[in-house]
Design a protein that fits this description.
CATH topology of the largest domain: Butyryl-CoA Dehydrogenase, subunit A, domain 3
Helix content: 40-55%
Strand content: 5-15%
Shape: globular
CATH class of the largest domain: Mainly Alpha
CATH architecture of the largest domain: Up-down Bundle
Distance between the termini: 50 Å
Strand order of the largest sheet: 1-4-5-8
Radius of gyration: 21 Å
Number of strands: 10
Oligomer: single chain
Length: 400
């Protein structure tokens, strides 16, 4: 869990403001506790309650929440950095943190009354989600009614609200996709989370049966990606709310896979340094092993550098208040998807070196590989969704 390759490898804490360093240290203090609870989270298929309680106590769930509602109104880079750090303790715990804390940013982009609904009486409220639109919402006086089965709602056991994707026009029409804000008291949580990896995230399904959603609990996805959501006018002094969603969201979940790559490299190097093959040959002296470790480390370092440099440059761009271009947003997504698949490539190499050991449930390297395989099924790691738009942009530029 510790070592030179951990999160500090490419990061410089000295450059952080004092307040951010203090929050980062509070988050780091949680890493050993998350590690001790990781097995329990996997067995229970959801986080232990103490973990979410400690997130609240540390104040890290409120980094992206506006000051008006008791939040820190902080930089996206700090939130992302904490996701990366928490992964060194438990990937599932880091994933749920990423979801719940990032959704504070989305809630802040809703109309003012929706934010009051969520935080007015409970400033510590958080939201889970199932963002992929699956059903069309039916118009009703003052809002919409929605029914449907919405899977993959990470951390829903500890949330008070859910952000649900829906079509406000004809089902399947990408021009009218919205995120509707629903109280979880009106939703059934179905415990169907029996999966390959990230078991501790508790990413269960949400079932909505003719739930009424008031008109003000709606934000159009097109506005989020354009950087023109209603909440930007509610909090005009908070530039993160004017940042196109596609520009920053790539630094939310991908840090989990990238930090897992660094953990895997640490584990593999420690094991291979002392392993003897068939009681005769020290594997660390094999040039084949050395070359494989060199290649795996290069892939992981590339992924880490893309994360760190992209995250810092995006924060600087948003803080400047300038308009973010579509090309910048597409590149950020391209880089983070590429980085996650570089980690997957490195894990293939490391697990091959691990031999048959990684197939055991108890093997640390095998657990990391299963987590990363699961992460790569997420839309945030989709090569088609990231590479095709960037390629299309480049080809259009050459035509023009």
């Amino acid at each position: 869990m510790t070592g030179l390759r951990q999160g500090t490898c490419f990061a410089n804490d000295d450059a952080l403001p004092r307040e951010e360093r203090a929050l980062l240290e509070r988050a780091r203090a949680l890493i050993p506790r998350l590690a001790r609870r990781a097995a329990a989270a996997t067995a229970a298929r959801q986080l232990p309650p103490q973990t979410v309680a400690e997130y609240r106590d540390a104040g890290i769930l409120r980094i992206l929440q506006p000051k008006r509602f008791g939040g820190l109104q902080g930089r996206f880079s700090l939130f992302s950095r904490i996701v990366e750090e928490l992964t060194y303790g438990c990937a599932s715990s880091a994933w749920v943190y990423a979801v719940l804390a990032e959704h504070q940013w989305i809630i802040a982009q809703y109309p003012e009354q929706a934010q009051i609904d969520v935080w007015g009486e409970n400033p510590e409220a958080v939201a889970a989600s199932s963002l992929a639109p699956r059903e069309a919402a039916l118009p009703a006086p003052g809002g919409w009614r929605l029914s449907g089965n919405y899977p993959f709602s990470s951390g829903c056991d500890y949330a008070q609200w859910a952000i649900v994707g829906a079509f406000l026009g004809e089902k399947g029409d990408p021009r009218h996709i919205a995120y509707l804000l629903v109280s979880l008291s009106e939703v059934e949580i179905v415990d169907d989370w029996r999966v390959l990896g990230l078991e501790g995230t508790g990413s269960k399904s949400l079932v909505l049966r003719d739930v009424f959603i008031p008109e003000h609990r709606c934000v159009m996805v097109s506005d989020l990606f354009a950087g023109t959501p209603p909440g930007a006018l509610v909090h005009p002094e908070y530039p993160v709310l004017r940042a196109p969603r596609g520009f920053l969201v790539s630094y939310s979940l991908p840090p989990v896979a990238i930090a897992l790559g660094r953990r895997a490299l640490d584990i593999a190097c420690a094991a291979l340094a002392r392993r003897v093959s068939r009681g005769v040959t020290r594997l660390a002296e094999s040039e084949v092993i050395q070359m494989a470790i060199g290649e795996a480390s290069a892939a992981i370092d590339v992924a880490t550098l893309l994360l760190h440099t992209g995250r810092e440059s995006s924060t600087a761009a948003v803080s400047s208040g300038r308009k973010i271009t579509e090309a910048e947003a597409l590149r950020a997504r391209r880089d983070m998807v590429y980085a996650q698949h570089q980690v997957s490539r490195a894990l293939d190499i490391l697990c091959e070196l691990d031999g048959a050991r990684w197939v055991y449930d108890s093997d640390e390297l095998g657990a990391i590989r299963r987590d990363v395989m699961t992460i790569l099924t997420h839309h945030a790691a989709s090569r088609q969704a990231a590479m095709a738009p960037y390629g299309r942009m480049l080809l259009a530029a050459d035509v023009n």
